[in-house]
Write a structure and sequence with these properties.
The complex is a heterodimer of chains A (about 170) and B (about 110). Chain A has six helices and no strands. Chain A is mostly helical and about 170 residues long. Chain B has one domain: Helix Hairpins. Chain B has about 110 residues and is mainly alpha-helical. The chains are: A mainly alpha (about 170), B mainly alpha (about 110). The interface between A and B is large, with 80 and 71 residues.
Chain lengths: ~170, ~110
């Protein structure tokens, strides 16, 4: 019962602050509402018993990415000038597109999600198992994507240096 | 519907509720992506969409294949890729701001090519 209450609180916070994040006038407020969405996403992961994932989410997203966002907002926004919106016609088209997608996906979820799952309670996932799955080369182990992500991060560092250096 | 309420009283959150929340967040992100002009707002909308997709992976893994960890790893890699993408995008945005002194997608950004 407690987890249900926590779930509904998290769902309410997520939905409301995501809507406020894309509609608010000041951009720094959008960033703060995005922070709430990210933190409650971490809460969802806690609720699903994926504790390592929740900590990663909070450390990487709510820590690192949010600092980057606030940094860039402070660097690029001129004070006194409000954030411009799209033309009203374009906003209407955007809302229509989003509502259409929401209706289609909601219909699919409501009618087509099969209810033949069986929720098993599991113990806390051991970090050792996660590490073995991440660094093995057997079936169901993910060495290759791990290395691909490390290459991606290297490319990201080189790209960041290339973009940011003075010409 | 009866099964739904039984699940809810049984201390199990139905999978549809998670999917409903993530669908709403995803399409709010789509709306923000299409309706805002500030590049940082576009990036924030992308982050919303990525988060919704990540929760979906974790939820499907936890509910449908609880013994395995495939969706778990996919979420982990998606978080890493999203962090890299946000860093590079913000570097590009700050560089654009240095050159043309605006970060709206419709103003002088189309002149960036040389």
């Amino acid at each position: 019962m407690v987890s249900n209450i926590i779930f509904f609180i998290l769902a309410f916070v997520t939905v409301v602050s995501s809507i406020l994040a894309v509609t608010s006038q000041k951009i720094i407020r959008s960033a703060v509402f995005l922070l709430f969405v990210l933190l409650s996403t971490g809460g969802f992961y806690f609720l699903l018993d994926y504790h390592f994932l929740a900590i990663t989410q909070i450390a990487v997203y709510a820590g690192g990415v949010m600092v980057l966002f606030i940094f860039s907002i402070v660097l690029t926004s001129q004070p006194g000038i409000g954030v411009k919106f799209e033309k009203p016609g374009r906003m209407l088209v955007a809302a229509l597109a989003a509502l259409t997608g929401l209706a289609i996906c909601g219909h699919i979820i409501f009618y087509n999600v099969n209810r033949v799952y069986y929720y098993v309670t599991q113990d806390e996932l051991k970090v050792q198992d996660i590490g073995f799955g991440l660094l093995g080369t057997e079936k169901y182990q993910n060495m290759l994507p791990f290395e691909a992500v490390s290459l991606l991060l290297l490319a990201c560092i080189i790209g960041g240096v290339m973009i940011a250096r003075k010409r | 519907m009866g099964e739904f309420i039984t699940n809810l009283l049984n201390n199990t959150i139905p999978i549809e509720l998670y999917l409903a929340v993530t669908t709403i967040v995803f399409f709010v992100g789509v709306y923000g992506f299409l309706s805002r002009k500030n590049m940082i707002m576009v990036l924030i909308s992308i982050e919303l969409m990525l988060n919704a997709a990540d929760i979906n992976f974790a939820v499907f893994n936890r509910y449908l294949y609880p013994g395995q960890l495939e969706g778990f790893y996919f979420t982990l890699f998606a978080i890493a890729i999203a962090a890299a993408e946000a860093a590079i995008a913000i570097a590009i945005i700050i560089n654009i701001y240095r050159k043309v002194h605006t970060i709206y997608v419709d103003e002088d950004v189309s002149k960036m090519k040389y």
